């Protein structure tokens, strides 16, 4: 029997780890509650709250992102405090400039998951109220939303840093799961129509080598420049293709086709093997490869894993192997650092492999992607190495990121003298700790056949149509 390295108890490892992750969650939550209640994130060194400008005046991002994690971990008192705050203090009448993407994945995703897990109508009412406020972002000549929206006036515009007023693939391509559920819950097809329109445009448009570049004009519907990445700016678009298919109970054939088509292009153009034998995803700039992989791109091990089973029969094992190889490379990016945490980006040129060569890439901000892939790969293979790797990450988080009043990111994973960034990101509560908990739980906790996780790790149920509903839809379609 494996025993817990932390408490040296004789409990089987799963019980011990469950308690440990509850304790980590409770510690993060209690400090947030004590020093930053109602703000978006906790600043654990200065012991105050951070609001930032991503959520357009919405508050409590850490509360919304924590609801489902607290609930599934059985932290009842803490969950009830979170629920009460949503009920009494979540004010959706804000008038600020919000990232459509961030509000969708954290607030819409968090409230939807809370509703589906608990059945509390209050979450449903809140999320439908919020969903309506996001609709004006789609009022563009193509229906491709812009990145920023004023939640009060509905005015929207593109990020100043995005070239030529373009919209970002990973932003407008990461709405599908939540918007389909908004239509399910409201009975209003408008949400599904908006995201299906994005899908149609992307399906139709000419793609360089079959690849999807990161920037698209919401006015002309053309690509703005040819930078392709499975990491930042592109990542969750690919994730939402396969998850849309899985969430539709495997009926969304268009999503399936687009996902496997994208995978083929990615394999042909981006997947590389280093001289040392590590498989990685390079970035593509108009045909020139940049041999760099971001921490964000490490989600792709899990994504390729969950997509393996529905690939062409002769490719299934290949996809599973590829998923394992990518996850192995991401683990290497952790083991090759002094802290055993991975850098924001690592490279495969300039002599090194799976290490950051630039000072500016050495930080770790409590991101989940590597642990996320461990969780999926564990569920798919039950190879114990994924739990061992998860455990290494826990020890590193405890040693380098735990501070007196919460968890903090660090500025340099290659030095043992920690310099903390003073930020407990809300995705640490929604993703990193939840994926760790699931990695050590039984497979019947949120089984992958019944739930898909949005890109912020909020679980959404697979939508199963009853035969009666199917017949009704068919009758309707044939009479049109
Ligand atoms: C999260 O908000 C989501 O996982 C998003 O898809 C990417 N960035 C962070 C975590 O790193």
UniProtKB/TrEMBL annotation:
<keyword id="KW-0812">Transmembrane</keyword>
<dbReference type="GO" id="GO:0005783">
    <property type="term" value="C:endoplasmic reticulum"/>
</dbReference>
<dbReference type="InterPro" id="IPR012341">
    <property type="entry name" value="6hp_glycosidase-like_sf"/>
</dbReference>
<keyword id="KW-0378">Hydrolase</keyword>
<comment type="function">
    <text>Involved in the maturation of Asn-linked oligosaccharides. Progressively trim alpha-1,2-linked mannose residues from Man(9)GlcNAc(2) to produce Man(5)GlcNAc(2).</text>
</comment>
<feature type="active site" description="Proton donor">
    <location>
        <position position="102"/>
    </location>
</feature>
<protein>
    <recommendedName>
        <fullName>alpha-1,2-Mannosidase</fullName>
        <ecNumber>3.2.1.-</ecNumber>
    </recommendedName>
</protein>
<feature type="active site" description="Proton donor">
    <location>
        <position position="344"/>
    </location>
</feature>
<keyword id="KW-0472">Membrane</keyword>
<dbReference type="GO" id="GO:0005975">
    <property type="term" value="P:carbohydrate metabolic process"/>
</dbReference>
<comment type="pathway">
    <text>Protein modification; protein glycosylation.</text>
</comment>
<comment type="similarity">
    <text>Belongs to the glycosyl hydrolase 47 family.</text>
</comment>
<dbReference type="GO" id="GO:0070062">
    <property type="term" value="C:extracellular exosome"/>
</dbReference>
<keyword id="KW-0735">Signal-anchor</keyword>
<keyword id="KW-0326">Glycosidase</keyword>
<keyword id="KW-0479">Metal-binding</keyword>
<feature type="active site">
    <location>
        <position position="235"/>
    </location>
</feature>
<feature type="signal peptide">
    <location>
        <begin position="1"/>
        <end position="16"/>
    </location>
</feature>
<keyword id="KW-0106">Calcium</keyword>
<feature type="disulfide bond">
    <location>
        <begin position="298"/>
        <end position="330"/>
    </location>
</feature>
<dbReference type="InterPro" id="IPR050749">
    <property type="entry name" value="Glycosyl_Hydrolase_47"/>
</dbReference>
<dbReference type="GO" id="GO:0000139">
    <property type="term" value="C:Golgi membrane"/>
</dbReference>
<dbReference type="GO" id="GO:0005509">
    <property type="term" value="F:calcium ion binding"/>
</dbReference>
<feature type="binding site">
    <location>
        <position position="455"/>
    </location>
    <ligand>
        <name>Ca(2+)</name>
    </ligand>
</feature>
<feature type="active site">
    <location>
        <position position="369"/>
    </location>
</feature>
<dbReference type="GO" id="GO:0004571">
    <property type="term" value="F:mannosyl-oligosaccharide 1,2-alpha-mannosidase activity"/>
</dbReference>
<keyword id="KW-0732">Signal</keyword>
<dbReference type="InterPro" id="IPR001382">
    <property type="entry name" value="Glyco_hydro_47"/>
</dbReference>
<dbReference type="Pfam" id="PF01532">
    <property type="entry name" value="Glyco_hydro_47"/>
</dbReference>
<keyword id="KW-1015">Disulfide bond</keyword>
<dbReference type="InterPro" id="IPR036026">
    <property type="entry name" value="Seven-hairpin_glycosidases"/>
</dbReference>
């Amino acid at each position: 029997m494996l025993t817990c390295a932390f408490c040296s108890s004789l409990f089987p490892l799963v019980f011990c780890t469950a308690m440990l992750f509850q304790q980590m969650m409770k510690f993060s939550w209690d400090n947030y509650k004590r020093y930053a209640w109602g703000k978006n994130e906790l600043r654990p060194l200065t012991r105050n709250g951070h609001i930032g400008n991503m959520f357009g005046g919405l508050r409590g991002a850490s509360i919304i992102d924590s609801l489902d994690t607290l609930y599934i971990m059985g932290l009842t008192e803490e969950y009830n405090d979170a629920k009460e705050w949503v009920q009494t203090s979540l004010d959706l009448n804000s008038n600020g400039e919000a990232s459509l993407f961030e509000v969708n994945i954290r607030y819409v995703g968090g409230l939807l998951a809370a509703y589906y897990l608990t059945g509390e109508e209050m979450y449903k009412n809140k999320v439908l109220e919020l969903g309506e406020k996001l609709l004006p972002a789609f009022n563009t000549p193509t229906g491709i939303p812009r990145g920023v929206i004023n939640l009060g006036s509905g005015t929207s515009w593109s990020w100043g840093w995005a070239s030529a007023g373009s919209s970002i693939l990973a932003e407008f391509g990461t709405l599908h799961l939540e918007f389909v559920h908004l239509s399910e819950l409201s009975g209003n097809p408008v949400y599904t129509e908006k995201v299906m329109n994005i899908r149609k445009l992307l399906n139709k448009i000419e793609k360089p080598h079959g690849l999807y570049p990161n920037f698209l004009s919401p006015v002309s519907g053309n690509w703005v420049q040819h930078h392709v990445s499975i990491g930042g700016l592109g990542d969750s678009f690919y994730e939402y293709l396969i998850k849309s298919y899985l969430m539709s109970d495997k009926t969304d054939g268009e999503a399936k086709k687009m996902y496997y088509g994208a995978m083929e292009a990615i394999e042909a153009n981006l997947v590389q093997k280093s001289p040392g034998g590590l498989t990685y995803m390079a970035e593509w700039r108009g045909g020139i490869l940049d041999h760099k992989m971001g921490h964000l791109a490490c989600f792709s091990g899990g994504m390729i894993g969950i997509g393996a089973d529905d690939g062409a029969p002769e490719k299934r094992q290949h996809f599973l192997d590829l998923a394992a190889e990518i996850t192995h490379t991401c683990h290497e990016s952790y083991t090759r650092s002094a802290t055993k945490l991975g850098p924001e980006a690592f490279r495969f040129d300039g002599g090194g492999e799976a290490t950051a060569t630039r000072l500016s890439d050495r930080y770790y901000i409590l991101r989940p992607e590597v642990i996320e892939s461990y969780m999926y790969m564990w569920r798919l293979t039950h190879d114990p190495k994924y739990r061992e790797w998860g455990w290494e990450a826990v020890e590193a988080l405890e040693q380098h990121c735990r501070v007196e009043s919460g968890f903090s990111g660090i500025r340099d994973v290659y030095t043992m003298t920690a310099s903390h960034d003073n930020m407990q990101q809300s995705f640490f509560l929604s993703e990193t700790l939840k994926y760790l908990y699931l990695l050590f739980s039984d497979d019947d906790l949120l089984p992958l056949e019944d739930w898909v996780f949005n890109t912020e790790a909020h679980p959404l149920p697979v939508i199963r149509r009853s035969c009666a509903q199917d017949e009704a839809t068919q009758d309707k379609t044939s009479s049109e």
